[in-house]
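Dear colleague,

Following up on Tuesday's group meeting, I ran the structure prediction for the two-component complex that the binding team flagged. I've pasted the input sequences exactly as they went in, so you can double-check that nothing got truncated or mislabelled along the way. The structure tokens for the whole assembly follow below. Feel free to forward this to whoever is handling the docking comparison.

Inputs:
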Amino acid sequence: MNLQSILSILVFSPLLGIIVLAMLPKTQEKAIKAVGFLATLPPLILSFAVYAHFLAGKSLSDFSVSVPWIQFHGINAQEPIFSVSYELAVSGFQLVLVVLTSVVSTLAAIGAVTFIKKEWKGYFMLFLLLVTGMLGVFTAENLILFFIFFEVTLIPTFFLIGKWGYFEKEKAAYSFLIYNGLGSAVLLIVIMILFAKTGTTNIELLKEIVGDPSGPLSADFKLGLFIALLVAFGVKLPIFPLHSWMLRVHVQAPPSVVMIHSGILLKIGAYGLIRFGMGIFPNQFEKLATLIAILGLINLLYGAFLAFIQTDFKMVLAYSSISHMGIVLIGLAAMNEAGIQGAIFQVVSHGLISALLFFLVGVLYERTETSLIDNLGGLAKGMPLAAGFLLAGALGSLGLPGMSGFVSEFMAFLGLFKVQPWIAAVGTIGIIMTAAYLLRAVLGMTYGRAHREFDGVLDLRGVELVPVVVLMLLIVLIGVYPSVLSSPLQATLETIMLGLGG
Amino acid sequence: MSLETFQQLNWSIMTPEFIILGVIAVLVLCDLFMPKTLDRKILGWVGIAAVFAAMAATAAMVGGPVQSILHDTFRIDSFSLAFKLLLLCGGVLVLFLAVSYEPKDGVERYQAEFYYLFLAALLGAMVMTSSGDLITLYIGLELLSITSYILAGIRKFHLQSNESAMKYVINGGISTAITLFGMSYVYGLTGTTNLLEMANKLVTLANSNHVYLLTLAFLMLVVGLAFKLAAAPFHMWAPDVYQGAPTPVTAFLSVVSKIAGFVILIRILLTVFGFAATKGQGSMPILYDMQNYLAVIAAATMIIGNVVALRQTDIKRMFAYSSIAHAGYLLVALTSLTTNMFDSIWFYLLAYLLMNLGAFAIIQVITEKAGGTAIADFAGLYRRAPVLAVAMGILLISLAGFPGTAGFIGKLNIFLGAFYAEPAHYVLASIMIATTVVSYFYYFGVMTQMFFRPPADDSKLNIPFGILVVLIVAVVGSILLGIMPNIAFDFMQNNLDIIGDFFK
């Protein structure tokens, strides 16, 4: 097996699982669950193999693959072919997200084994399609391919929310579809304009063409395209005021889907902003840096204040996601190495922490049929393990030193203090608020006044412990040894800084 | 014309048309002399065989030189071959639907007409692709239209079918009158009905009054022909006719008839108006001058189609509005007027043909079983017939233009043209993308019914052979062209030089 085919196998191996599932009869519950879980392993193993390859000091470009794919003929006579290649590659940044995706996917598959009560076959088929889509998003090397995988994540997520979710699932699924559909429509406009004007969608080539002041695009035009890109990924991230769909999804979707959604899918927004926004349009990003910092601040504070008054723990977590994505924006707006690194760290760290917390909420809901903070008071007595991990996860989320959340927040703010001290100073209120709302919610649940008996309510057990422990270990690992993340990111950061001219 | 010159004409280029015409004659006679008790379905299969034969005869001419007979009224060029192949593909799939059509109240008494009228309509459409003259174009158009009127009303004792035929005749009559009026202006200005001669004469048009007349003719032709495309402002017939007509007829109207409409529109607009100078020789042709009008029609068609489709509760009406919307997308490609216009329209029509006929195959199965045409009849289809539900899901995704399907590549091609054109059509392309998002609502509404709702009755659905064929072709084709669109692009590129042939 040559190295070039590894990424393709990594991305498309879950499809094998779909084929196997299609042949299994609907009633074979155990076999279906086993196949659904096993099919997430090849990407997991391969992504770690790629990471090992990197640690061994070899170049990640060994994995790049490029094959001619579609030729749009005859658009004009001079340049007869507008072609799109099938191009996959990983840089350090992409590698980190691929590893994150495969880890969270495997754990979400374990989660699904407990959480999903009906029609496992359909669930796992859609789930595996979603995994392929996400892996493709992070490895695609041209915009059309990126867009294709981006949309591939949309359809399975719609069905996963709409069929297996809670009470208002269809409404949530529709608002997911329409908001993201609009976001991707804007994205498609940007992509097609770039393609029509420059003749390529390869990201590296676009960086050169767009960066060239004598290129085919005028400065105003580039700014317009960048703003459109900001809106497109702003829906995904989500940036206030484009966030309302995400709240619904987080509350209504089944926990194993929320793990993926909050852990990975939201990160596509951040990934797109960094890779395309900052990568292709560095000068335009710089022009709007203050605006982006303010947007980040709004997200941070808005999310934090609203999280403080929620009575449903799921809503607390949903608003906390908005708040944490604000930190990503703040880090990016700093436009320096520390800030951007902090933003990327936050992407990974929030991916792990939110997956952990939503998994725990899922378990709690499953046992007690509620996620209201008041109803869960006294949890520590009935479910000590769950309560303990919940507290630990919340501490990671609020940025306790020694856990991943701290590293990312610290660096993001370090970056912003250098360039926009006032905005950063206001932003620190958000950090305090984060501690306040998370502790209020978690303490209310674990040690709060007991409103009910927890007799006969089972604590975390067996296979449920796997995702919890693995995620917790990763969170602590990044917290105490951040270079597992920062060393692959080094090369990416240098390229970005080069693009920014710094 | 003496018998000798008559015999010397190169009749072989009309082979596909002769095959269809011959089989129509045979079918009519057979129907007359066959005993009443015999099932006429066998005649349907003969019709299918005839279309396949015509397809083979057409394919054999691909790659050949431009040929014409009968004083250039009938011509074979790459444009006509490419679109004739599409029409024949559409025609054969519709006939597969027709032989499987068995509604509860029956059409047995007219069954044979049902088949040969389809063939006659197809013949009209084929003549349209190959016409080099307004007269033959008009004859083709009328052959197609009049047979379609009868087909829409073929269920004599079915009230809705009658209503739809009536509406179709009246609307069709009005629009044909407008088209003819437009044609008469062009004829009056040039003194000829031959399209290429017209183009030559109009290059030197100088009198500004003539330009005014030509503009009027342009508008009347576009508006009149919009009827066949089901584009605004002549789209109102579509929902009523689609709902009332038998499902195979609806499928025919939405695909074959629409392809024919685009063929005639492109042929007339490009030859007559593509060179007609507005301000003396060498100035901007009138077609470019009128781009904005086409853009308005395209935008209105997309918006009306997609927005009104949201409110439909009847699956056939919903698909009527959806087909209006797709006509709008195709008009965007026509408006852009880039050199890849032919490729993108051809590819989109191919994709549309596959996904729409596939969807109508499923609609036919469901509506026959349920006896009505409500979208709610799709409830729980995933439970009743998972294969049908998944197939419908794939086709709907293609109609909505999601990646991995032919519909996406088709839209991509149109966007590329719209943004590449100089000046670029940013607004029009953005409307197209935005209305595409609107279309998610109603396409996914059907999905919601199929996958999320419980079934009203659990009875199994059996899939007739003809439906199965259509479904396999449609689903496999939609996915294959979505993943490897180069199959179609290369075929066009290597065999058919449409632009080079068009004005020869």
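The radius of gyration of chain B is 22 Å.

Cheers,
M.
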